[in-house]
Specification:
Length: about 240
């Protein structure tokens, strides 16, 4: 049997040598990224091996979504719920209520009294967290058509001008357009300005004021400056 020449052996070993060189070069390049990848993988492994823990979070934000156009909620609604959840101990220990959100879906809901079932799938949450229960599990509400209406604006005057004087009040514009749930809009006959104190004035007063709408459960269709003018004059005849 003929002995293989050194050149033939070197030629056959060349692919292996070239592979080793490529591996060594890649290990040297971007070594910090590779180290970071290993650390992240180890962190995920450590989290997955942690014992789970169940906790109850209060004041988790509640949002109502997908209300049909032309409808709105007329009843009082909660703004938060309680959520019981389970997850790796280190994750749930540092979890706050603001890291979750419950979105109550009102799709396909029509006018009238309705009941919304809150499901674990309605909760926006971090990965590896399991939702066990939402409290309350159901929300009762009333849906009504949205209505528009034009109503007069009335100045809300507190106190009086000085003795021997009288006053008159003018508001511009004199009317405003409101909107809201049908039943609440129908009850509104006028809108008051914020309170204006006269405090025994003897001179005219010109103010830009806001309107009180939140207490009535309605809102303005557009926002424009409301000018309130109090004209103060001396009485002609004093008894």
């Amino acid at each position: 049997m003929k002995l293989k020449s050194a050149a033939a052996v070197a030629k056959r070993a060349h692919p292996i040598s070239r592979s080793l060189t490529w591996i060594q070069a890649n290990l040297k390049e971007n070594w910090h990224l590779k180290l970071l990848s290993i650390a992240v993988a180890f962190l995920f492994f450590a989290v997955s091996r942690q014992p789970s823990r169940e906790v109850l979070l209060t004041n988790v934000p509640l949002e109502f979504v997908n209300i049909a156009p032309g409808l709105e909620v007329s009843s009082d609604l909660p703004t938060s719920v309680k959520v019981r959840l389970r997850g790796p101990r280190d994750m749930v220990q540092g979890l706050s209520a603001n890291q979750l959100e419950v979105r109550a879906d009102l799709s396909n809901k029509t006018t009238g009294e309705r009941v919304i079932q809150l499901k674990p799938s309605d909760v926006t949450k971090p990965d590896k967290i399991e939702i066990r229960r939402i409290e309350p599990q159901t929300i009762e509400l009333v849906l009504e058509p949205t209505r528009h209406k034009i109503v007069p604006i009335e100045a809300q005057i507190v106190g009086n001008v000085a003795f021997g004087y009288e006053y008159s009040v003018k508001v511009e514009p004199a009317e405003a357009e409101i909107e809201g749930p049908e039943s609440k809009v129908e009850r509104v006959k006028k809108i008051l300005t914020e309170s204006v104190h006269l405090n025994n004035r003897t001179e005219n007063l010109l103010l830009q004021v806001d309107l009180e709408t939140s207490k009535q459960g309605i809102r303005l269709t557009k926002f424009s400056p409301i000018q309130l003018k109090v004209e103060v004059v001396a009485k002609k005849n004093i008894d």
